[in-house]
What we know:
The protein has about 375 residues and is of the alpha+beta class. The chain is built from twelve helices and 17 strands.
Amino acid sequence: MVLRVGVVGGGQLARMMIPAAVNLGIEIRVLAEAEGMSAALAATSVGDYRDLATVAAFAADVDVITFDHEHVPQAVLRALTSSGVAVHPGPEALQFAQDKLRMRERLAALGTPQPDWAAVTNEAELQVFLDAHGGRGVVKMPRGGYDGKGVRIVSGAAEAADWFAAVAGDPAGNALLVEELVDFRRELAQLVARRPSGEVGHWPVVETVQIDGVCAEVFAPAPKASARLLEVAGEIGDAIVSGLGVTGVMAVELFETSDDRLLVNELAMRPHNSGHWTQDGAVTSQFEQHLRAVLDLPLGDAGATAPWTVMMNILGGPAEGPLDARYVSAMSAVPHAKIHNYGKDPRPGRKVGHINVTGEVLDDVTYDAREAAAAFQD
Length: 378
């Protein structure tokens, strides 16, 4: 019998599940938001993921529902599970990715290391927090933010007045999240997977580099990471994925602080940009692992296949013409680079693809990855 996985969302994450599904003989179907999206190759339906009837009709012909993003409303998710649809990750877990205040509350209950934080409903409460934390803080919209959106560093409560107004009438809650401005050495990401029957596995922790709040580079494993750091990061990831009951792949974004602590920044309950290196640098890619996990199949080996893998995002792409018009120059310059094209039109700041390069010497691998990625930029 052919296993059938339905993916809600037609972006590049769904697109990159397709080769893994083909290799495993899995039938993958995608509910895309519009025609011509990145995962159009497998888009069997086009419709609004916020509409229960649309999603329920899509779910009727698959064995399990999973996601390219975390934005499907809780009401839709819970209606699906109530009707017997297998949904992974499920609504009980996804609520903590959809609402950052709930995430902070739950992680606190689990004893997870995280920045100081508070829920604030007005400027006076925010100012109290700022005054207690050196006069500055990070304010976040609890719902809907990603890739740096919905995040603001403030030095005074009045700087968040518009956001307080925006959430004032929100039935999901009228509080903003404020966090201490962490003095961090670098940002890390711990990728982990869990299947419904409980098996957990994680990849080596990686270092991520952000530009304007968007992931630009990933170094796997994190350079100069001690054995203890690798161990602790893995333990944090394993504890969260089990403690929240997540099924599928989850990324834990971390701060490595200047005083050698690891603090949880964000969670993503799906394949993640920090895990794209696994396509060419790990025994089992995050996309294959996600499919295995949501189908409750044994997890694959998450070990690295080379000493170093560097992933470079192609942000924006060429000013004129499609990405594939630059293939000759990129492939000639770095023949061993792996090019991943998302099938999206170039646009400033947009993630349109990425490059993976593996090798023995980190400096060489980094240089080659940057050179290949540069061929797609103007």
